[in-house]
Structure formats: C-alpha cells, structure tokens
Amino acid sequence: MKRTLFILLLYSTFCYSQVPKAVTQKITITDLEIRAIDSIINDVYKADEPGASVLLAQNGKILLRKGYGMANMELQIPVSPDHVFAIASMTKYFTAISILLLQEQGKVDVKDDVRKYIPGYYTHEKTITLENLMTHTGGILNDREFPAYWAKMKLETSRYAGNQFAEEQSLLFEPGTDFSYSNPSFRLLAFVIEKVSGQNYYAFLTQHIFSKLGLRQTYPGSSAAILMKTSSYAYSPIKKIYERQEDGPYVQYGAVGSGSIFSTVDDLYRWHRGLKEGKIVSAASLKKTWTSYVLTDGSDAHYGYGRSVSNINGYLLVGHAGGLNGYQSHEWQLPGEDIYFVILSNQGRDIPRPTLLANKIGSFILRTDQALPWQMPDSVQLLPLRGVYESLADGSRLQKNMSVTQCYWHISSGQGKLYAKRTGIPKTELLPVNDSTWYSRTNPFNRWTFRKDKSGNVTGVRTYGSFIQIGPHRFGKKVSSVIPSIPSTLQIDSAGLVKYCGIFQHESGPRQKLVVSQNKLVLTDEEGSEKKELSFAGNHVFFDPQTEILYKFIPDKNGKITELQYFDGRADMVMKRIRDNY
C-alpha cells in the first residue's frame, strides 16, 4: 500500500503538476525520478513470478540496473542484471547494422534489388530493395501467423523452409507503398550477409560486433547450454498459472536474422554505447537507422532500419520490442538526450508488460503522459460513434497477412460507456482523452481518434500508438451505423450435440476437443483446461457469445461431421476430425 501511494505521489508530482518539457529544454533524470521508475517496475513484477532485468542510463552513467522477480520459478532463482534472456526481434538491429557495415565496405547498397545478392529469390517480378527489407515495406508477409508455415517447419526444420514458404506467397502490396511487419524480410537479410561476407551470420556478428565491443554474454539461438540463462514462462489467463516454455527449433532455424539472439542488459548497453561512439558504423549510417521510411503516398512508416521511430514533442525516440516463447523485451533511446532504457523479461503476457513499461517510463521522463480526467460524454453523445469500422491491420501487420476474412471494429455503447471490439476478439472499454480521441482501458497508449466530415457525421476512426508507434497510423472507414446482432440461440438437446463431439486437428498440429457438458457443446483443449461454451445457431453452426466467433461444422454425404471451420480473430482455421472422444 505504501509503495502504491509513493508511486501515485511521484506520478502526480511529475506528470500532472508540470507542463511537458519544451523542445529546447534538456532532460536530466533526477534521483527522485529514478526511485519512481524503480517503484513502478517493482509494482509490476512480483517477487514470486517470472520477472525482468532493467537498465536505464544517461550520458554514459548507469542510473538503474536491477533484476525483478524470478529467473527460474522451479529453482526459486531471482533475476539479476547478469541473467541472459532472448531479445527476440531486437535482433533485427544487429542485422540492419551489419548490412550498413557491408555498405560502408562497398560490398552492398541498400538501394539494390535483393536479387543482386540472392538471384534465385522470387520477388514476383517486383523490385524489392534491401532498404525495403529493413523497413518492412517489401510486401513480404509474416509467415508466423500462418498455420501452414508451422506445418512446413514440422516437415523440414531448416532456415530455408520458412523463407521458402513466405517466398511462395503473393506480395501483400507493391514494394514501398505500405508497411507490414515481416520476419522473413530480416531472415532474408541474414542470407545476404552470409552471401556477401562469405561467413556464417553468427560468425560475422561475432567478428565484427560481439568481439569488438566485448559482448561476452551475447549468444546465437542454439541448443547449446548458456550460462546464467533464464527460463521463460507464459501466463495462462484460463489456468491462472505460469507455464514453462521451450526455445524449440524456431529459435535455432526460423528466427536467424530476425529474432534469435540472447543477451543481457549490460551487453545491450555496451552495444548501444559502441554504436554511439562510432565503433561499428559511421555516425551518418547510424543516423540513417533512425530515419523513418516514407511510403510512396507520403505517409510516415514510423520505422527506420530495424528501429521504430517516433517524434515525441520534438524529441526523437527510437527503439524496438521483442517477443518469443515467453520472452518479451523492449528498448528505446533518446539520441539527443543520450538516454537509453532496456527491459528484458521472461514473463509472457497477451499484452506485453515490457512494452507497456517502455511507454510508461518514456512518457514519465518526457512528462507527456498527461491524460487529465475528461468528462464522459452522455449516452446521446456516444450514439454517433456507434457503428462498424474497417480494421485493416492487427497491430503492425496487415490483416490480409493473416486471412482472407475482412476484420472490423464494432464500436458500441451501453450504460454510459463506450466499447471497441475487433472481429473475433472480446470487447474492451474505451475512455475519453478529449471530445474526439479515446484510449483503451487495458492499454492507455492505444488510441482511437474519430474523424468527422463538415456536417459533423462520423466517417471513420484512426488507430495509433500515442507514444511509441510502429507502422503508419491506420484509418478505418465507417461502413455502417448498425452493428450486426449475434445469432439467436436455438435449442438442441444433448443427443443432438453428440455428433459434434470429438478431436479435431489442424494441419500444423494444434488439436481441439469438443464435448457435451450440462447440455452445452464445449470447446476445449485435450487437457480440458481451457473451455468455451458454444451456443447453437442452427444448420451445423455454433457461436461463442463473448468473441462472436462462428464455428461451422462440415458433414460428409452420410451426415457424419468431418471438419470444423472458423475464423479465430487472426486466421482462417480448418480442423479435421481425427477421432471420437474416449
């Protein structure tokens, strides 16, 4: 209780009683602010849960270096700053800097077509430059969202299998015209590094970066034992427990160049300082990584070379997040103020805590988190916002990356509150920032700004991050003022439900079990730990009242159910029935 009051007192002192720092004002992080940041992080990571390692520095001086929570829950080993974590997609910066190093050596040019270095790569007759690959603007899809990709990786565990899958799919857009996060793009860059340098990707990094900067606790993803390596865990909201995760073959093969490196906060700080001091590439090359790519329509991609790029009240903020098998991470820097922050965690959550903290602490330092209470509009004022809006992207990935199914935002109101619900996902409450902009209760840095025409009619909604932004802002056109109602629930007895029971399996491996319980069809896993009660809509169709996902069962000519089809909020799923329940 005392810690919570301390945080609230400091937060009110620094965020509400002071105005935002002017562009010309230099930032100096005070001892009081450091104590507040430490308390904020300490309040998030409990002592008996998977935790995090944190480092904050300014002007070459480390201000905060500390571990929180557990590195290994089974052995009750606390996290220390010396512990090793997977940094996941923060690996991309190592790849991008390696390309720029090769460019300074005259061996590549970022404006070159990738086929100059990998002639056999199929670009669908389009020019995809190395710059497109480094900025996620090449149109190459992100394969991890495709169950068929995982099926292919089960058959052929190699670096080539994953890239081949992405290569075979159509481009999402004309290169340079849009942004969609793409791990295969950075895996392809790793192949370019190897082809040009004549070295293995990790051998190149070791010679030109790790050894040069003294990164002694930075490792490639492999099956080899790593000293001081943490164990990773993912939180199950259904079971309300942390489940141990394994690195698996994806780290060794599928993430090379895009997310396979393990490191510590100390080594990442050495990496940051080495770049700043010009020990790897020139200042001009480094500045290029912080320069946001501009799409052909003039919009800002908010992404440079392996870096997210944001401008906060005139301050340049660059960084990156990462997430892999229970590990989650985030780092950012304010180059003009020489401030660096990194958090590495072995606690996996649906809403990553490192990214929430990176936003929170960054906005705290810059005095920008000043969402003063705004009066909630009355029910009549909420009515014009209600309706169906296009949702073209799921976070940093275009929706068409994941499915042919179009997704929408359903903006609804009830009992004086406003809600946003994306196709296949439970609704979340929105709270007002002002008369046109709202934020999510679960993530205050996710914003919705409603746009009106000259007559005052709501025409669409712009979704974006209020602090750290990755990818362009997305605008969803309002397509209807009427939200479709969920199907009516029809009656069906237990005898009628039995034919839908059984074990269903996707080609990539995941299985689901359907059973009858208390005259309801229940969707669960084989262990019976995660359960959804489905309502009957008729004609072999059921639905989940919470997510509104429709589950369609397909019978053969004899009426026996052989297949289950549904859209899970991200991808179109086809599950084959493989056997009856015991």
CATH architecture of the largest domain: 3-Layer(aba) Sandwich
Number of strands: 31
Based on Cα principal axes, name the global outline: globular
Query: What is the CATH domain class of the largest domain?
Result: Alpha Beta
Task: Output the number of helix runs.
Answer: 14
Indicate the mean pLDDT. 91
Question: How does this model look, in words?
Answer:
This protein is α+β, with helices and mostly antiparallel strands and 582 residues long. It folds into three domains: 85-366, Beta-lactamase, CATH 3.40.710.10; 379-480, Lipocalin (Beta Barrel), CATH 2.40.128.50; 494-579, Lipocalin, CATH 2.40.128.50. It has 14 helices and 31 strands. The strands form seven sheets. Strands 14-17-18-19-20-21-22-23 form an eight-stranded antiparallel barrel. Strands 24-25-26-27-28-29-30-31 form an eight-stranded antiparallel β-barrel. Helix 2 (31-44) runs antiparallel to helix 12, helix 3 runs parallel beside helix 7 and helix 5 (147-155) runs antiparallel to helix 6 (159-168). The longest helix is centred in the N-terminal third of the chain and has 15 residues, at 183-197. It is globular and about 70 Å long. Mean pLDDT is 91; it is low at 1-23.
Tags for this entry?
8-stranded antiparallel β-barrel, 29% strand, Beta-lactamase, single chain, 14 helices, globular, 582 residues, Lipocalin, disordered N terminus
TL;DR of this structure?
The chain has 582 residues and is of the alpha+beta class.
Topology:
Elements: H1 2-15, H2 31-44, E1 52-58, E2 61-68, E3 70-72, E4 77-78, E5 85-86, H3 91-104, H4 130-134, H5 147-155, H6 159-168, H7 183-197, H8 201-213, E6 232-236, E7 241-245, H9 248-254, E8 262-263, H10 265-276, H11 283-289, E9 308-312, E10 315-324, E11 327-334, E12 339-345, E13 347-348, H12 353-366, H13 379-382, E14 387-390, E15 393-394, E16 397-398, E17 408-414, E18 417-422, E19 428-432, E20 437-440, E21 446-452, E22 458-465, E23 474-480, H14 494-497, E24 502-505, E25 511-517, E26 520-524, E27 531-538, E28 541-543, E29 550-555, E30 561-567, E31 572-579
Parallel strand pairs: 6-13
Antiparallel strand pairs: 1-2, 1-12, 3-4, 5-8, 6-7, 9-10, 10-11, 11-12, 14-17, 14-23, 15-16, 17-18, 18-19, 19-20, 20-21, 21-22, 22-23, 24-25, 24-31, 25-26, 26-27, 27-28, 28-29, 29-30, 30-31
